[in-house]
Structure formats: C-alpha cells, structure tokens
Amino acid sequence: MKGIRASFLAALLVACGRPSPSPPIPASPSMPARPVASTAPSAPLEPAPVASAPIDAGPAQLDPDGDDDPVADTGTGELPAVAHFERVGRSPLALRHICDLTPFKDTLYAAHAYQPLGLDGATIVAYRPDDDPKKRFTTAFDWNRIGEKQQGGGAGQGFLRVHDFGGRLFVTDADPPYNGLGLVEHGTEGYVFISDREGRFAPARPPNHRPPGPPDAEDKPGAGVLPRAYHVLDVIRFRGRYYASTGSVPPKQHAWSGPSPGALHVASADLTRWTYEIDYPFPWKDGVWRLTYLVRFKDRLYAGIQDYDGVEPNDYVYFDPPADAKVIDREHEHPAKVTPLGTAQTLRWYADGGKLYWIASARDGVALRVTEDGDHWKAIDLPAGLGAPTDITRFRGALVVMMERGLVKLDGTVIARVTDKKSPFALVDLYCGAPIAVYRNELYVGGQRDGALFKLVEGEAPDAGAK
C-alpha cells in the first residue's frame, strides 16, 4: 500500500511487506468450511490405468482444468536421468525474483518482482535463445516508472503471474503506484495489463508514466482498470468471463478505513473495467484479506487466501456456480480447511491428468498435496535435504517437482541437485517461488536471487553445481 493517512493504512502498509513465516493461531471461522480430508501420504502418484469396461463419463466440463487456456507443451523424448542447472543469463531489467514463466508465440515470458507488495519493481522480460546473444533478453513491459516521485510507492510492486488467455497475455499489477493514478473516481484502483496477439504490451503513457490506455476485446493492448482494488494478484478465464483476484474495498465502504476482504473482480466485455463481484470473508471483518492464486478444476474456481494477521481459519476458497449461472453469488462460495490449523498460503496450483496439485505454506512448513475430487487431499512425500517445493509441471512424460535445492520426479527420484551453499532457487518470499516451464523441449527455472534464468541440462555439472 502507498502512503495515506488513516489508521487503517498502518496495517495496510505493513501488509505490503513480506508475509510472516509464523502467522498467529487462527481464530474461529467467519463461515463454516466444508470438511476436507486430512493429508495422509498419497498412494500411486501417476494416473492409474483406465479400465477397459465402458463407464459413464458424465457431462462434459465447461472449462478445461488449469490456469491458462492452451494445453501446455510438455516436451518430447526421455527425461534425463541425471542433469544439472545451467545459468542462461539475465535481462538488464531483471529484478530479484522471477515469479512466473509462460511460453507464448515461441517466446518465453518471465514475470519479475523485487519484493512483491513491499518494494518498487515490476517488469515482464521476454527470452528467445536463437536471437543475437546481446538481444536474447528484451523488456516486454516496464512498470518501474523511472524518474517519478517515490514517496508512497512510485512504481508497480511486482508482477507475480503472466497468463495466456485467448491468444493474448494477461499480467496483474500486484501493488500499483500510489494505489492507482486516478483513472476512475474511487480512492484506489488496480490494473491488469493485456498484450496484443503477438505478445506486445502498450508502454506507459506520457506524461509521468501513466498506465497504458484501455485495451479492446480483439487485439489492442492496454490496461484494464479495477476500481476498489488495493492489490491484484492473479487473473483467470472462467465460464467465459475474466476474473482477477484482489484485496479490495467492499461496496459502499470507503478506502483506507474499515474492512479489506479478498475479492474477485470481473471484466467488462471490452476488458477495460473490472468490477467487484464476490468477496471473502463475508460478513466483512476489520483487517486485511486477499484472494491470491487461481485455478480451474472440475468446473470449480479455486482461490488461495492470505490474511495479514494470520487469523484466517481456512486454507482456500472455491466457487462452484451452476452451469447456467450468470454471476458468482454467495451460495456458490465454499471455504475449505485442509491443514490442521488453517491459514495456509498458496504458492502454486497445477492441474494434470484429472488431478489437482497444490503447493502451500502452512504452520508446519511447505507441502505438496494432490486431490482427485477437489475435496480430499493427500500429502506427497518428497526427498529430504532439498528444501521446500516451489512448482510442479509435466516434462517429457513425467511430473517433476522443483524444490529449493533440486528437481525431482513425483516418485521421489532426484534428477538434479544444487550443490552450492546458496541456492538460486531459495524460497524467500511466499508470493514468489521458483517457477518452472517447458519451452522448446527444455525445462527452464526462474532464479530468486538476481532474476537470472536457468535451464536444465543433461549430465553432471562441470562445476558441480548451479552458480
């Protein structure tokens, strides 16, 4: 949050910093959670063989599972038995963290942040390995607003996700400059930056590096505006509509005082204005909540929850409107508690093979869990000594898990290790774990120390570890 005067601002200012690794004991729930099974170690982790007998598949899903539109390229060939991480390089505008990696139009896009919701810094970097070595990294969008006044936060404070929807890229402004530059009448606003169909973003507008002009629904790049949003964490397409997850000012309330629930904002048909539709918790409470990362699974929309005070008893919330619903209403909202004490913070969702994988940080540490029905979760045991999991994806026929100090198959087989004392993939910010993505049949990893990009390379490391 940026510098405004009310007492509520003090909590919001602190809330912009790095989340506490040890949140307080949860208070009683704001609404009853649906019971969810505890997290016993999982059984076989790869999809089981399908029975040959005919079965009733039920109605077709309205949306594919996942958090992007296209089916991701997972690569071909055999997974390396032994590999190491090789530093590819970094952009001149790279920041401390790469928070997300997304291939688009034969280019790999990286979302950068310095300290999300805490310190200025937000860029989107594009990488193409076959370009001139000096031009392999280019800046797709710069929201650092160099030269503008810094008091109260003069630049965006992190890009956490970059998504591919409908042949365009969507990027959310996690903490916008000054909590908005007055594009709408309300006291605070956020932005969703939308590219054209070639992955080009409109630049900030003069004078004073204002947000780009409005986009259109076809191809024009620009910035959609979210009135009432303090923070915009993620974006998704669900049931034919675009939703952004936020921390917001509820209807008929004034900014900088009173409750700040997490919310979903829905985009207008032309993508220019995203309005507040549904929130959590309700009834509203004094304090700061946010809905964080989003995923579709079995025609539900799942959203992570983060509250500043650590009193939230649930771990996430999902929305399951009926097929003919025009909006998401309160009866479609279902908070869920999976961890013993709640308050888990979602790092990643990943849908694959009819299962949903969830990486979340709870009071007892960071864990990877899996569900087949969306309600009952099993914890997945991972090798000791490699730190916390940060991302999961399918690569060359196998599910692989990125950890702070290595890459493993889901069955626990270690493919690559970091042997240096300091890992470039350490989890030091709960908004931003080292992401992985498959691009041109190679696995890339986003660094967490200086924004460098790494690639998995077959064979033992010549220098015995990533630098």
What amount of the residues lies in strands? Answer: 35-45%
Low-confidence runs of at least 5 consecutive residues: 1-55
Helix content range: under 10%
What's the Cα radius of gyration?
21 Å
Spatially, the strands of the biggest sheet line up as: 1-19-18-17-16
Structural class call reads mainly beta
Q: Major sheet, described briefly?
A: 5 strands, mixed
Shape annotation: globular
The total count of strands amounts to 30
Give the N-terminus to C-terminus distance in angstroms.
35 Å
- Provide a count of the helices: 1
Describe the structure.
The protein is an all-beta fold. Helix content is 2%, strand content 39%. Strands 1-19-18-17-16 form a five-stranded mixed sheet, with no helix packed on it. The chain has a five-stranded mixed sheet with strand order 2-23-22-21-20, with no helix packed on it. A four-stranded antiparallel sheet has the order 3-30-29-28, with no helix packed on it. A hairpin with a 2-residue loop joins strand 4 and strand 5 (107-115). The longest helix is centred in the first third of the chain and has 9 residues, at 7-15. The protein is globular, with a radius of gyration of 21 Å. The model is unreliable at 1-55 (pLDDT under 50).
Summarize the structure.
The protein has 467 residues and is an all-beta fold.
Give the topology.
Layout: H1 7-15, E1 34-35, E2 40-41, E3 83-89, E4 97-104, E5 107-115, E6 119-127, E7 137-142, E8 162-165, E9 168-172, E10 189-194, E11 222-227, E12 229-238, E13 241-248, E14 262-267, E15 274-280, E16 289-297, E17 300-307, E18 316-319, E19 333-337, E20 345-352, E21 355-362, E22 365-371, E23 377-379, E24 389-395, E25 398-403, E26 406-409, E27 414-417, E28 436-439, E29 442-446, E30 453-458
Parallel strand pairs: 1-19, 2-23
Antiparallel strand pairs: 3-30, 4-5, 5-6, 6-7, 8-9, 9-10, 10-11, 12-13, 13-14, 14-15, 16-17, 17-18, 18-19, 20-21, 21-22, 22-23, 24-25, 25-26, 26-27, 28-29, 29-30
